[in-house]
Amino acid sequence: MLEPATFGVPIVIGPNYFKFNEAIELIKEEAFFSVDKSRKLSVLLKMFFSEKQNRISASGKLLIYVVGKT
Known about the structure:
Blueprint: E1 11-13, H1 21-28, E2 32-34, H2 38-50, H3 52-69
Parallel strand pairs: 1-2
């Protein structure tokens, strides 16, 4: 699950992530995004494609997390 994070790629996951500590931490940090409906996914993807700063912010948070774990 963390492989894309090493490249700073924002990650979208489903709602069943509670067994994974990294996912829980990254959801709290707003670096991972959980969706449970296609409408929510659509809104999230539009946000990423239309607002570059949102992608940059999520990417930065992911990289900080990954570097801190190594």
